[in-house]
Amino acid sequence: MLRRTTTAALALTAPFLAVTGQAHAAAVTQPGEQVGLAPGLPLPEGFYAFDTFSWGRADRRDAAEVGVNILFLIYASPLKILGARVEPVVAFPSVFINTHFPAPVPNRDVSTFYTPFLGNIFAWNLGGGLGVSYIAGAYLPYGDRGSLGLGLRGTPLLPQSASATLTQRVAATYVGDGSLNLSAILTYNRPFDAHGRFGGTVGTAIGPIPVADQINLDLTATKKFGKFEIGAVAYGYTDLPVNRRDRLFSRFQRDGYIAAGGLVGYDFGRVILQTFVTREIVARDTLNAAGQRQHNEETRGWFRVIVPFPVASAAAAPEPLLRKD
Q1: Model confidence over 283-319: pLDDT tens digits?
Q2: Which end of the chain is more exposed for a tag (fewer CB within 10 A), N or C?
Q3: What are the distances in angstroms from CA 228 to CA 42, 210, 231, 268?
Q4: 193-241: per-residue pLDDT in tens?
Q5: Sign of the Cα pseudo-torsion (183, 94, 159, 117, in order)
């Protein structure tokens, strides 16, 4: 099985540092970014801020430490279409990378914003604690494609930024009497251009970049005990098969993995905090620059802050506050 290239995987959003000549996958939506939330149910009317930060590193000695921060802003409007609450959403991902290259390659610390998301949520409350939603939007092709000081050998830093990406998501949530959160959200990402390109002199030098279709699945099973929330989370990601007859994809390395972990949360009233740790239990391997197989299973820690700003008329609404793109 062929997994990520040499330095790091990140997904969201999960960028990869491309430091080998092998083409590779790069997840646009960060796998796991929606676990712990109740994405199928509509939010009470108002504004909501979600900030999710994670930090992880693969087991390899030279693997990079990769942090991702994703700020989501959602407006749960009073407007309804076919019974679904309309909830515009924007997201601003950023990435932080600390490399651990083998000598004599110098290490680098990099941080940048990338692929902002614009979309809309259509959420239906079906009653009995059950809800479903459909999310449609796009990631914009913005991001630093710097080379970590390694010349074109380390370019691009964020290959998934080479093309805008259309995103569609379907979510279902069951909360029962309000103490449960059983949620699943399936995400399908399709690049507008499978032969992505960056602009400027760097884009001209490196030429087209292969970008594959992708699927994410985020799962949550938690229970509340008073203000505490405890449970299990899991997520999976894979890029879809590519056309190997296309020369650009002839050496394309597919990516995919499944991770699981535990979550603990606490509701402070005006602020909700969640923390969880996940471990990749199944993962594709990677061929490095020397053609050697690598095992890159990653452990990742997560921390989330949720701040609701419901309007006065909806402040007492019984619907759960946990909701995300």
Answers
A1: 887 676 667 777 778 999 999 999 999 875 544 445 5
A2: N
A3: 22, 44, 10, 9
A4: 988 888 777 777 778 888 899 999 999 999 999 999 999 999 999 999 8
A5: positive
The answer to whether the peptide bond before residue 104 is cis (omega within 30 degrees of 0) is yes
User: Which residues, 6+ apart, have CB-to-CB distance to 177 below 8 Å?
Assistant: 129
pLDDT tens for residues 90-120? 999 999 988 887 777 778 888 888 899 999 9
Residues 51 and 304: beta-carbon distance below 8 Å: yes
Q: Return the structure tokens found at 270.
A: 């005006």
Element (H, E) at 204: helix 200-206
CA distance 302 to 277: 6
What's 259's DSSP letter? E
- 3-class SS at 202? helix
Contact yes or no for 188/240 (Cβ under 8 A): no
Under 8 Å between Cβ of 45 and 303: no
